[in-house]
Every structure is written in structure tokens, then in C-alpha cells.
């Protein structure tokens, strides 16, 4: 009786022979196929003569595809495609696609840009903008946001924390705003070394629902974010020069951030921004300022809040008393003077019966 070891040896030999025959047969067929291609292909069509050439061609095509994808992502943020995929949509961007979500929206804009641009030649202006945008990019991306658009000298960024909560999104945007101010300080230090004038910027942030989708035509498509929340964030940024504030946020953003988050803010006003009927409370973020500046601005907070409550009730004398007291406490703070001017203006104006105390911002 044949032993098991001998039996397995015979089986292995037979199996090896079969594999060899199949390999030789396939190799002969491959050569015959290449001969047919060589005789039937046009003269200007190259024939790959080796596996190395074939692999090199595949690698070249893959690199070209990768480069094209990377270039495409510079125009359409990768996060847009990921956002659609997160909502169960196809990763393919199609015209008219739309999803609704809640995100934090941040706008930042260079102050006095028009005057600055008039003093620069076109090429100098482009170099300046690219240098500025390059430095503002990292604070946004490092805090899990992405730039939706460059609008002239302005940046619109979204914060849609993948896998995170609404609180995470709002906190990401707030941290990005503070980091943007730090990046601006470093940039101005560099400009000073090069004997350039420093620049300043305002930042506005809101949190709320938006519609994220694609718009355009058959031959030109773009991604976009629209909705009331986008308008509010844009209007908040436009208020920064009016209140001499670097960062202005809505009460809704702070509510989403949570009261336990260690961030110093102060109430600025109760306003109705252009394009919106409902008024909102707006706050100034102080976290990036020096300790002395924070103390000075917070010193008047009690009087500002009390005076604003009186203004809403149309108690003009009481409101003015609070704001004047705030001006005595901090003579260099522009906020008390702003509220004094508003009270004097409204006190002499016939108001609607349903007036809710909000300052109308038409800009």
C-alpha cells in the first residue's frame, strides 16, 4: 500500500505539470495576440513591447488623473463632494443637486481694501491677495472648515464638522476666527519687516440652516451655499467697522457653542440686518485681545446691557443714563457713544406701534 507521503508527492508533481502547461499555452496566445495587433494597428499607434513599458504607461495615466483631480479640487472643495456623500447622495456633482444642513458660516473681509487696491499696480495687487489668502487658509482648514468662495478680498468659509455635533461645528468656526486674528498679527509683522503698511480685517459668524447645492447651466456649473443664515453671517461681518469690533457673532452661534465653552464676549446691540425681518442680538468676541483690552471692554458690559433693555422699552432717559455711565467708565470705548447717538436719534422719531427696539442696519 502506497504511503501518504508518496501519494501527496505524486499529486504535487501532476499539479505542477498542469500549471506549467497552462502557463505556456497562455504565453503563446499572448504572443499571437500581440502579433495580430502589430499587423492590424495603424502605423502611428505605438505597440508596448514589454511589461515594463505597459506598467510605465499605466503609471503615467494614473499620475495624470491624480493631477487633474487635485487641480479640480482647487475649484470645487473636496468637502462639497463629501458632504453630498454624507447625506447619501452620489459623489458625482450634478446640476441642480441640493441638500439642506445646519452649518457655521464665517465671512472675513479686509478693511479699507478699496483704498489699498487703488495704490497698487495690478500685479502687485494679485501678489498681495495671494499672500494674504495663503496665510488665512490654514486657520480655517486646521479647524475642520473649508473655503467656499473668495469674493474679491473676502473669504466665505463653512464649518461642517464631519461626524460631529452642532456644537462642534460652532466651536470650530469660533476657534478659526481667533486663529485668523493670530495669523493676521503674524502677517502684519512680516509686512512691517518689508516696510509695508499693516492691514486689518473684520469677521462675522452665524450658525443656522443652509441649502448646499449646484447651480449654473449645461456648460458652466458651480457649487453654492444659500439661505438666510448666509445673509446674516455676511451682514455681521459688515458691522465690524461700525462697532469697532474684530469679530462679531450672533446669539444663535453662542447658544450653539454652549455656555460652558470658555470664551469671552460682550453684548453689542439688538439689530435688524438688511434682508431680514427678525432682529438678532449681536456679540463681540474678545478672546484674542490683550488682557487690558478685555478688562476695559467688559467693564461697561453691565451698563450697556441695562441701557439696551431700556431702549427696547422706549425708556429713553433711563437708557441714556446707563450709556452715559458706561462712557464715564471707559471714555475710549466707542460702544457707549454709539448707543447714545442711537437713543437721541430714536427719541426724536415717531416710531411704529410694533417697533421692537431693534436698530435697523440698511447696509
Write the layout of secondary structure elements.
Elements: H1 4-40, H2 51-75, H3 78-86, E1 98-110, H4 113-118, H5 122-141, E2 145-151, E3 154-159, H6 166-193, E4 201-216, E5 221-226, H7 228-238, E6 247-250, H8 251-257, E7 265-273, E8 280-285, H9 291-298, H10 301-312, H11 316-329, H12 334-347, E9 359-361
Parallel strand pairs: 4-6, 7-9
Antiparallel strand pairs: 1-3, 1-4, 2-3, 4-5, 6-8, 7-8
Helix pairs in contact: 5-6, 6-8, 10-11, 10-12, 11-12
Provide structural commentary.
This protein is of the alpha+beta class and 363 residues long. Helices cover 53% and strands 19% of the residues. The chain contains twelve helices and nine strands. It has helices spanning 4-40, 51-75, 78-86, 113-118, 122-141, 166-193, 228-238, 251-257, 291-298, 301-312, 316-329, 334-347, and strands at residues 98-110, 145-151, 154-159, 201-216, 221-226, 247-250, 265-273, 280-285, 359-361. Strands 1, 2, 3, 4, 5, 6, 7, 8 and 9 form a nine-stranded mixed sheet that branches. Helix 5 (122-141) packs antiparallel against helix 6 (166-193), helix 10 packs parallel to helix 12 (334-347) and helix 11 (316-329) packs antiparallel against helix 12 (334-347). The model is unreliable at 4-8 (pLDDT under 50).
Amino acid at each position: 500500500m502506497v504511503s501518504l507521503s508518496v501519494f501527496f508527492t505524486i499529486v504535487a508533481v501532476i499539479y505542477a505539470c498542469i500549471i506549467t502547461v497552462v502557463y505556456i499555452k497562455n504565453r503563446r496566445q499572448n504572443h499571437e495576440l500581440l502579433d495580430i495587433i502589430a499587423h492590424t494597428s495603424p502605423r502611428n499607434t505605438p505597440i508596448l513591447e514589454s511589461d515594463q513599458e505597459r506598467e510605465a504607461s499605466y503609471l503615467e495615466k494614473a499620475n495624470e488623473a491624480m493631477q487633474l483631480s487635485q487641480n479640480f479640487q482647487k475649484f470645487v472643495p473636496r468637502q462639497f463632494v463629501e458632504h453630498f456623500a454624507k447625506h447619501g447622495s452620489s459623489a458625482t456633482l450634478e446640476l441642480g443637486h441640493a441638500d439642506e444642513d445646519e452649518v457655521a458660516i464665517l465671512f472675513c473681509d479686509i478693511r479699507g481694501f478699496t483704498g489699498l487696491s487703488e495704490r497698487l499696480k495690478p500685479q502687485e495687487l494679485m501678489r498681495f491677495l495671494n499672500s494674504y489668502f495663503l496665510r488665512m487658509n490654514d486657520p480655517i482648514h486646521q479647524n475642520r472648515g473649508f473655503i467656499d468662495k473668495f469674493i474679491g478680498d473676502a473669504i466665505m468659509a463653512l464649518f461642517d464638522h464631519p461626524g460631529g455635533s452642532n456644537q462642534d461645528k460652532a466651536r470650530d468656526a469660533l476657534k478659526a476666527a481667533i486663529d485668523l486674528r493670530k495669523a493676521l498679527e503674524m502677517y502684519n509683522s512680516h509686512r512691517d519687516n518689508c516696510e509695508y503698511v499693516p492691514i486689518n480685517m473684520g469677521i462675522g459668524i452665524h450658525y443656522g440652516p443652509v441649502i448646499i447645492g449646484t447651480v449654473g447651466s449645461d456648460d458652466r456649473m458651480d457649487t453654492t451655499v444659500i439661505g438666510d443664515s448666509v445673509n446674516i453671517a455676511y451682514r455681521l461681518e459688515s458691522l465690524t467697522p461700525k462697532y469697532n469690533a474684530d469679530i462679531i457673532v450672533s446669539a444663535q452661534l453662542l447658544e450653539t457653542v454652549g455656555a460652558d465653552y470658555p470664551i469671552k464676549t460682550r453684548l453689542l446691540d439688538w439689530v435688524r440686518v438688511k434682508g431680514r425681518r427678525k432682529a438678532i442680538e449681536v456679540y463681540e468676541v474678545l478672546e484674542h485681545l490683550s488682557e487690558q483690552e478685555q478688562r476695559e471692554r467688559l467693564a461697561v458690559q453691565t451698563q450697556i446691557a441695562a441701557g439696551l433693555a431700556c431702549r427696547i422699552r422706549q425708556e429713553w432717559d433711563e437708557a441714556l443714563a446707563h450709556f452715559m455711565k458706561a462712557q464715564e467708565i471707559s471714555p475710549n470705548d466707542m460702544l457707549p457713544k454709539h448707543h447714545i447717538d442711537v437713543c437721541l436719534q430714536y427719541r426724536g422719531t415717531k416710531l411704529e406701534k410694533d417697533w421692537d427696539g431693534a436698530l435697523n442696519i440698511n447696509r
